[in-house]
Design a protein that fits this description.
The chain is an alpha+beta fold. The chain is about 40% helix and about 25% strand. It has two domains: about 1-45; about 55-170. It contains three helices and five strands, in the order αβββββαα.
């Protein structure tokens, strides 16, 4: 019996840890979702300054000012050099012009690849036709970040590909 004591003891510790983690998750889940929603609302307000409200239909935000739709927004996830990059993309009502982008989260190298979050990069997308959202070296109108080609390309391709997909959904 003494040789099984460590196994029972370890099983009790693991079981206790699982129960405590489950309880913590259930207590904090709603608060985390509320914070994420608030952050998204802030980003939408920054992108669409005249926004008064929005509705979420599936995974597309319909941005309104009064009773008029003034744009569309959606989230996209791409793969950069350091991991996934989560992006909020806004489109004008013509569904082909980029209103703006906002990097929600990323795992890129600090100080280099993480420069994709700076306005000096994200502002390059504003007013561009989605068909022109390619790096200049690929025939597009977006200048990449020197030394961060993989991160720049990941953002550009994610924005372009996701927007084209969502434009098709909006047309249907």
């Amino acid at each position: 019996m003494k040789k099984y004591y460590p196994i029972f003891f370890l099983a009790i510790i693991v079981l206790s840890s699982v129960v405590l983690l489950s309880i913590t998750n259930s207590l904090t889940k709603d608060k985390i979702l509320a914070q994420e929603e608030e952050a998204t609302l802030t980003q939408l307000n920054n992108m669409f300054s005249e926004m008064t409200n929005y509705t979420l239909d599936g995974d597309i935000y319909f941005i309104t000012a009064g009773d008029n739709i003034i744009g569309y927004a959606f989230k996209a996830i791409g793969n950069g050099y350091g991991g996934s990059i989560s992006i909020l993309i806004g489109l004008e009502t013509d569904k082909t012009t980029v209103k703006g982008i906002s990097i929600i989260s990323n795992a890129e190298t600090a100080g280099l690849g993480s420069r994709i979050t700076l306005p000096s990069f994200t502002d390059r997308f504003i007013g561009k036709n989605i068909n022109d959202v390619k790096l200049t070296q690929d025939g597009g109108q977006i200048d990449g970040i020197s030394g961060s080609t993989i991160s720049s390309r990941a953002v550009v391709e994610t924005v372009r590909n996701t927007a084209l997909e969502k434009i098709q959904e909006l047309a249907d």
